[in-house]
Amino acid sequence: MRGADETLVREALSARDPLPGTTGFAGEVDGGLVRDVLGREPLFVESGTPRDSMPVWSHDPRDLADPELFAAGHVRDTDGERAVWTLPDPEPFADRETAVDRVREAVETSVDTVETDGLAVAFSGGVDSALLAARLDAPLYVAGFPGSHDVGAARSAADLLDRELHVVELTHDAIERAVPEIAAATGRTDAMAVQIALPLYLTAERVAADGFDRLGLGQGADELFGGYAKVEKAPDDPRVEADTVRGAQREVVHTLPEQLPRDVLALRHAGVEPVTPLLHDRVVSAALRLDDEMLVDGETRKWTLRRAALGSLPEAIATRDKKAAQYGSLAARELDRLARQAGYKRRMDDHVTNYVESLL
C-alpha cells in the first residue's frame, strides 16, 4: 500500500469515507486492490484479467505487459470490481468570509505539516507554488527557456519572498533527450501529456542531481479552486458540460485520476517523490464547499484561495495570474518548433504527437 497506512484504508473502506485524511493511496489490502477517490496514487492492472480474479498489478505500468489504469474510488477482489467511494457533494459554505477562513486553515495546516528533509519546491511564482515556498524552508526551482514567463514570474516572486531561486534553463537538446524518457515512464505519447510533463521532469532531474529526493508541487489548486478559463466561463464554454461554475469545478476535479499518474510517474522516473499538500483531503473537503462566486468572482479565478493566501503571501503574488507550466516555460512552443524542424508540419494531424513517437 502506498500513500496511507493499511489500518486507515480499512477504516475508510468500512465507513465508506472518501476523504479520510490523506494525500491519496493505492495498493493491496486484505487481498483486494484499492485506489483513492481522486486517484492521487497510480495503480495499474494487467488488462484482460477476468473481473472475478485478482490481476497482476503494479504502481508502475512498465512492470506489466498490457497495463490498464485502475479506476479511482474502486476496490477489486475475488468478488469483482466495484466503486466504494464517490466525490462528496456537500452544501456550500454559508458566506465568503467563512469560506476564506476554512480554506486558509486547510491549506496552511496541510502545507505546514510537510516534512522538509530532502525537499525542494517547484516554484513558478504563482499563488499555488508560492504558498509552499512561503511556508516551507526548502530551496526553490523553476524551469523554462530564457525569457519565458515562468522564469520571470518566479524571479520576481522569489525577490518578494526574499528567497533564492534556482533556474533550470531548458534547451532543445534537453527536450529531445527527455521526451522518450517521459513517454517510457508514463506510457503516454500524446503531445499535451508530454508538454505538461517536460518542465516538471527536467526540474525533477536537476533537483535529484542536487541531492534532494522530494519535490513539493502546487498541483490540484487549479482544479479544486476554479483556476481554469473553462470553469470561469461555464456554461458558455463548450469544453465543459456543466451549467454552473461549481458544476464545472467538479467536472475538472473528476479528471484528476487520469492526469495525476502522468506527473507522478514522470517525477519518480526522474528520481524524486512528489509532495502535494494542496491535494490533501482536508483541502479537497474545503474546496468542494465553494459556490460559484467563491470560485470565480467576476474575472478573478481561484477567488477564495487567493484571499486565503493573503495570510502567507504579498498581495502581488496572491493575486497574480500565471500560465500553465507547458506554456509559461515555453516547453510547448519549443517542442512544436522541434517537430516542425524535423518535418512534422502543422498542417499534419497531431504533428507534435507524431514527432514524439518518432523519437521513441
Describe this structure in words.
- This protein is an alpha/beta fold.
- The chain folds into two domains: 6-83, no CATH class; 96-333, Rossmann fold (3-Layer(aba) Sandwich).
- 44% of the residues lie in helices and 13% in strands.
- It is built from 17 helices and 14 strands.
- It has helices at 6-15, 96-112, 127-135, 149-160, 172-186, 191-209, 221-225, 229-232, 245-253, 256-270, 281-287, 292-295, 303-309, 315-318, 325-328, 331-341, 351-358, and strands at 26-29, 32-35, 44-46, 57-58, 67-69, 74-77, 80-83, 119-122, 140-144, 165-169, 214-216, 273-275, 296-297, 300-301.
- Strands 10-9-8-11-12 form a five-stranded parallel sheet, sandwiched between helices. It has a four-stranded antiparallel sheet with strand order 1-2-6-7, with helices on one face. The chain has a three-stranded antiparallel sheet with strand order 4-3-5, with no helix packed on it.
- The radius of gyration is 20 Å and the shape is globular.
Rg (CA only): 20 Å
By CATH reckoning, the class of the largest domain would read Alpha Beta
> Could you tell me the strand content as a percent range?
5-15%
Strand order of the largest sheet: 10-9-8-11-12
Number of self-contained structural domains: 2
CATH architecture name of the largest domain: 3-Layer(aba) Sandwich
The CATH fourth-level homologous superfamily of the largest domain: HUPs
Largest sheet: 5 strands, parallel
Helix content, binned percent = 40-55%
- End-to-end CA span: 32 Å
Q: Looking at CATH, which topology of the largest domain would you report?
A: Rossmann fold
Low-confidence stretches: none
Mean pLDDT: 95
